Amino acid sequence: MAVRGRRTKVLPSELNKVCPERVDDPPTHSRTMSDFEVVPNLHQSSSSVSKSRRKAHFPSGSNEKEHLISWIPENIRKKECTYFVESSQTSDAGRVVCHCGYLREQHLDDAAKPPIFLGKEWDASRHIQEMPTDAFGDIRFTGLGQRLGKYVRVSSDTPPRVIFHLMTQHWGLDPPNLLISVTGGAKNFIMKPRLKNIFRQGLVKVAQTTGAWIITGGSHAGVMKQVGEAVRDFLLSCGHKDSEIVTIGIATWGTVYNRESLICPMGGFPAEYVLDEENQGSLSCLDSNHSHFILVDDGTHGRYGVEIPLRTRLEKFISEQTKVKGGVAIKIPIVCVVLEGGPGTLDTIYNAITNGTPCVIVEGSGRVADVIAQVASLPVPKITIALIQKKLSVYFHDTYEHFTEGKLVEWTKKIQDIVRHRQLLTIFREGKYGQQDVDVAILQALLKASQNQDHFGHENWDHQLKLAVAWNRVDIARSEIFTDDYEWKPTDLHPVMAAALISNKPEFVKLFLEQGVRLKEFVTWDTLVYLYDNLAPSCLFYSKLQKVLLEEREHTGGSKMPRIQLHHVSQVLRELLGSSTQHLYPKPKHTERPRLSIPVPHIKLNVQGSSLRSLYKRSAGRVAFTMDPVRDLLIWAVVQNREELAEIIWAQSQDSMAAALACSKILKELAKEEEDTDTTDAMLALAEQYEQKAIGVFTDCYRKDEERAQKLLTRVSEAWGKTTCLQLALEAKNMNFVSHGGVQAFLTKVWWGKMCVDNGLLRVIACVLLFPLLFTSLITFREKRLQPMGCLTRLRAFFTAPVVIFLMNILSYFTFLLLFAYVLMVDFQSSPSWREYLIYFWLFSLVCEEIRQLLYDPDGLGVVKMATLYFKDFWNKLDVCAILVFITGLTCRLIPSTLYPGRIILSLAFTIFCLRLMHIFTVSRTLGPKIIIVKRMLKDVFFFLFLLAVWVVSFGVAKQAILIHNEERVEWLFRGVVYHSYLTIFGQIPSYIDGVNFNIDQCSPNGTDPYKPKCPETNEDNKKPIFPEWLTVILLCLYLLFTNILLLNLLIAMFNYTFQQVQEHTDQIWKFQRHDLIEEYHGRPPAPPPLILINHLQLLLRRGLLRRPPTHHKQLKEKLEKNEEAALLSWEMYLKENYLQHQQCQEKRNTEKKIQDIAQRVDALAELLDLDRVKRTGLVEQRLASLEDQVHQNAQALRWIMLALQGNGFSSGEDMPLVGSSKALEMKELDLEEKLEETQPSYHVLARNLLYPGSHTLRFPVPDEKVPWEVDFPLYAPPTYSADHKDMAVQDPFSPSLESLLKINYNSMDGLIDRQSFHGLYAVQDGLPLNPMGRTGLRGRGRLHCFGPNHALHPIVTRWRRNLDGSIIRKSLKKMLEVLVAQYPLSDVWALPGGSLEPGETLPLKLKWILRREFWPQFQNLLKQGTEVHKGYLDDPRNTDNAWVETVAVSVHFDSQNDVEMKRLNSFLQGCDPELCIRWQVLDKRIPLHTNHKELLHKVSTLLGAYY
After folding, report:
1. Do residues 1409 and 1476 touch, judged by C-beta distance below 8 A?
2. How far is CA 831 from CA 692, 824, 827, in A?
3. So what's the pLDDT on residue 57?
4. Axis crossing angle, helix 741-751 with helix 677-704, rounded to the nearest 10
5. Is there a contact between 327 and 607 (Cβ–Cβ < 8 Å)?
6. What are the start-end ranges of the H helices in 320-473?
7. With 160 labelled, which of 777, 1372, 1386, 1503 sits at a CA distance of 20 to 30 A?
8. Prior bond to 27 cis, omega within 30?
9. What is the reported pLDDT for 613?
10. Cis previous bond, 1090, omega within 30
11. Residues 876-914, buried b or exposed e (16+ Cβ, 10 A)?
């Protein structure tokens, strides 16, 4: 027997062994459960434990541990026996034990003292007390790895909410999306290997995919061991902690072996537990593969099943909690999974079914599971005592002799009730659902139970869909929810669509789009704000958005952080998309948003503490929609780097090419700021994918129609900030897109203007030099109006072409440089000549052009933005530098005293102007990329100089310090340290460094000669150097080795890498960079400098005097008419669909995809073959059984023949055996019995429920076959129960005695009480009437008022369900009804407005509560005019053997919507009791009413020919 630990008896030395972190024991207070049931600091602790710290295990920090140590003893108790009474039983060692099962020394110190007030008899309710628990913390199984679990010892009376609070707030568990309660055999049993693998893999899969909790008994045996091994195998195959499955073991503390190692009053962190199966005896060890243990203590030892009540309450409590996941609020569903099992398992299944919990029975696991699985498909009348007896003899062959006749009756009754609720019962058979599909069976069981639940309208379907979204099982949603049974409206899917987006479930988003969700109706302004409110905190965009909000708060001076609005989002997006775009969401000037508003229905769904109803609800029932919902959702998905979700949304976009390019730009900008390398790589990869999508769509468009495809490049996209696809591609540096043949053809077309692109460059140069050649056929034009030779517009078209403007500017620039060089070298006088003045004038025209480029703002970006864009360009910086240097030189040149410095500065300006020539070479396909190579090599040189400077300075300082003593001249210090060291790299080695070539005449001994360096250290006698030559030579050799060989070769290698890298993409680079040149000369005035001043003057007059805004040339940015734009986008969308289909075909043709498909098909084929083998095996068994029957029948026939022959005659036909298959006979008998079943009356069911309502009384189990009084039932011994209704004046005796019963007049009017039955005379036995429908399992009158019939009245008030226009709604070609239902105070269910009739009354009391008094007579008239649909016995849970309910159901139907009586009825309903709820409800079979009331409604719908 395990030694029971007690806090008062544990020695300090022993305590330190099991509790190394123990501190002094806190004082023990004697408290009852009622004292701490409120749990005063539950809320405090929940706020102190941050949700962000919720992980698989609670952090081991000291603060959290101290908080847990203080919280658990205050809120969680254990139980101790406080009075030792010897029991007749002994321990395993033969020692005397108490009635609680513990030894004397295992009790408290005062438990063995003589009793004073405790009494002599041992009573658990008095002698077991609660006190703070002493076992909790972390548990580690010795020798089984370092994995830690959580455990706690709790009292059996602990409120479930306290345990749930412990698990979620202190153990850090997230509330589950599903609760899987696994029950079954507690002892080890054998399962088929294949079934075991299917069960294990399926259970783990459903737990992993749905985020479920698995609850078991926690011991290392039976079904608990199977679950633990399944979790262990998963963790070993998975390998990472994030995928840990929550497996909670709820076991009895008194049956746990080695539990003394878990006792630690201050918590075990961790407690070492040894799993010892060999020595456990009648106790059981905990399973090492469970993650959490709740050890239930009732103060006893060795008694199993103590944990069952608490486990049931905890599971029920958890199933009533609301879990919010992915924006969906659902009540946590629960499912019971059964393997094997005995009598206790049957009780568990029965209780689960009674409470509405779906159960999955695994057939083939043995015992109870197989018994139920065998009879589950049979009609309930076929499940007889004999059948159950036969099944038990097969599956319980070892313990069958322990089943008494009473047990057989009880099992039969319970199994009948279980099978009667088929909607809650799912049988998993190997081969039925397929291998590894236990998860599907579990989820289907939940959905099947949900589908069969009573509900109002589409509430049940909504609940099922919420479950599927929370589980992230789109396969279940497709197969079980989106069926023909219910027609979903797109608006019904909006809340779950938002949830799927937030929780990143792309498959569900795709499914909802397939089911008809329109993004234009779904994406409202408020919905978009809500989506951005729920960005993942780890998202970079979220942090950028928070910075914007913080800046706004600082700007406004407020104390609270402002709420996210779309203009905040737009501010961040403009930073990402570039300044060429305008704000996507402008800041609203007024409270009302300037958007389209249309009415939508209210939609209710709780999401993370708020309601999504507000997202679709405006003050006047109207919503504000955004301009482009697809764009909005696409941006929201892309900024979070959600690849699959963004791809689905992009497939819905109309402006797909611009959307793809914008996404590429956003992702590249985010990747620059992202710190995580993996996320950066993922963003860049996704950006490349979107660039390829844009290329693919544009390729298809260009192949179809070149002109329209080029329009897509320059079309102004209102949705994307009034930018163009080409501009987006350039901003994102999408070289692959810009280098596309179609884009390059367009740029070439722009470059040549209105001329044909096949004109030779030499012909153009000739026409530039001799423009009269334009009027010949030398130059051709694209437009027909320019074809005539004498057309003067040819002249304008030619000279406004960018290529011509470029050539003229080249000629002008070369002329400027030649003239500038001539002035500097030949004609630079003290006073400027006319040539020099011409240079100044020329430079002035260049300055004016640069100012025009700086201020040219056709998009209205502002001066600051334009200046930023201007100075981003390297060549603009070079121009400004050259101009500033020139102006500086000019200023010095005009001052006589600084004439020469002015010429020097102007010479430097000339050098910079010459460097500007490189920009001209970008138009060359050969030289253009080389300029990029040079620019990149300059960066390489810059970094190389850092390394080189280290060696140059180190060698220079060492050389200078060794050779020369105290050189004070700074210029010669610089020469010696840097300049000479630098020249040494190129071979100019100082002659004096080794002393061989030293010449004292070449230096100054004292350093006084300004033109000579100071001499090295020399001998005063012979003037020979005395410095260590060997050292300087070694330093020189090392210096040359590292600089000339290592560093210079490193630089060459860097140059080579840069060259190779650029050379590989030469064509792309040239095509990309030529756009800048084309755009520059496309918008440049046609006249070259200095004649360009004429164009500047013209521009100044137009902008300054005429106030005309700058405009874009249509060739690069064109705003289309609405009709033309809509047609163009529709064409693009059509070709995008073709592109996506082509991509899908390419994926199917992909080799890896083919291999994957083949592998899947092979697996499916192998599974089919395996199933076929199972089926063929079963078929062979069936044929063998049939053959055995045939042989048996033949043997009987032969025996009969022999007997007949022996008797010298033939027997009668009645005795002749039938030759044939017994299976065929069974089928005939089954058909006959089914026909008999249809004709015979069904037995009452509700009246035989084992638990009598409103009490703790259990009925005697009565199987269907024992219901009639005529059937002999010797075992029948029902209990007696009669409730005392103190509030009722008229009721039969509470305790029926023969005297009081003889005063009752049955089958007649007994005063005001009508004891006559609608079914005629009923039998009276021993002074008590007998229920005319048979046995119920309970004697007395129960909660009814009278023995015999208790009469009731149920009016069924109906009307036709109509549309807004008054037309009747139909379903399945039948009219639909609405029925008046009510919910009474203190009741959770709805009912018909009626009930029991008080003696002498004509209307039920409950009906009077609903109607105002003045309407009672009129309602009686309506009842008289109504149609009686039922008159007789009502199957009611309150019925007993001696009291039952009989009712009259009257149908009151209002055929017209203008019926005066119906309007009066509605008006009087408004004055009913405020505690009552009454409503008109659609009538169908799922209406949530009492079962017997639904049978009455079925009769009414049949009478009126309505839908049911």
Report:
1. yes
2. 63, 13, 10
3. 38
4. 70
5. yes
6. 343-354, 367-375, 385-395, 405-420, 438-451, 459-471
7. 1386
8. no
9. 41
10. yes
11. bebbeebbebbebbbebbeeeeeeeebeebbbebbebbe
Q: Which two structure tokens, joined as six digits, stand for 1336? A: 């119920």
The separation between CA 1037 and the C-alpha centre of its own chain, rounded to angstroms, equals: 67
pLDDT at position 42, please? Answer: 40
Q: What is the CA radius of gyration of the chain?
A: 47
Q: Hey, how many other C-beta atoms are within 10 angstroms of the C-beta on 104?
A: 13
Chain centroid to CA 561: 28
Measured from the Cβ of residue 558, the count of other Cβ atoms closer than 10 Å reads 10
For residue 712 the two structure tokens come to: 């897509």
* Pairing verdict, β 359-362 and 606-607: unpaired
Cβ–Cβ under 8 Å, residues 1116 and 750: yes
For residue 763, the tally of other CB atoms under 10 A from its CB is: 14
pLDDT (tens digit per residue) in 305-351: 899 889 989 999 998 888 876 566 778 889 999 999 888 889 889 98
The pLDDT tens digits for 131-180 are: 999 999 999 998 877 778 999 999 999 999 999 999 999 999 999 988 99
SS3 call for 356: coil
Whole-angstrom distance, CA of residue 623 vs CA of residue 614: 10
The mean pLDDT of 583-609, rounded to a whole number, is: 48
- Altogether, the residues listed in the chain come to a count of 1508
Residue 620 pLDDT > 60, yes or no?
no
Beta carbons of 340 and 222 less than 8 angstroms apart = yes
Average pLDDT over residues 623-636: 80
Read off the pTM: 0.70
DSSP-derived secondary structure letter, 105: G
Q: Are the CB atoms for 289 and 275 separated by under 8 Å?
A: no
First to last CA, the chain: 63
> Helix and strand tally (H, E) in the chain?
52, 34
For residue 1270, the model assigns a pLDDT of: 92
1118 SS3 class: strand
Helix (H) or strand (E) holding 1446: strand 1443-1454
Give Dmax over CA atoms of the chain in angstroms: 165
Place of tokens 């109504």: 1426
Residue 89, judged by CB atoms within 10 A of its CB (0-12, 13-18, 19+), counts as exposed
Report the C-alpha gap between 850 and 208 in whole angstroms.
65
- For the segment 1283-1290, the average pLDDT, to the nearest whole number, is 68
- Tokens standing for residue 1386: 């203190």
Identify the three-state secondary structure at position 862.
coil
DSSP code for 480? I
Residues 1262, 1276 contacting (CB under 8 angstroms): yes
Distance from C-alpha of 590 to C-alpha of 586, rounded to nearest angstrom = 12
Q: Where does 1258-1337 have alpha helices with state H?
A: 1298-1302
DSSP state of 1246: G
* Nearest CA-CA partner of 1423 in 1387, 1397, 1386, 1385: 1397
Q: Is the pLDDT of residue 56 over 80?
A: no
Token readout for 326 is 């992915």
Q: What is the pLDDT of residues 1102-1151, one digit of tens each?
A: 876 766 666 655 567 888 898 999 999 999 999 999 999 988 888 777 77
Distant-in-sequence contacts of 347-351, Cβ < 8 A, 24+ apart: 347/414, 348/183, 348/308, 349/183, 349/418, 350/414, 350/417, 350/418, 350/1250, 351/312
**Alpha carbons 1092 and 849: distance in angstroms, whole number:** 8
Residue with tokens 């079962």: 1491
What is the percent of the chain with per-residue pLDDT over 90, rounded to a whole number? 32
Q: How far apart are CA 416 and CA 405, in angstroms?
A: 17
Tell me the sheet residues that pair with 973. none
Measure the CA–CA gap between 918 and 856, rounded to whole angstroms.
24
CB contact at 8 A, 414 and 345: no
Give Cα separations from 65 to 139, 151, 266, 295, 433 (angstroms): 14, 14, 10, 20, 47
Quote the CA–CA distance of 1136 and 712 in Å, as a whole number.
13
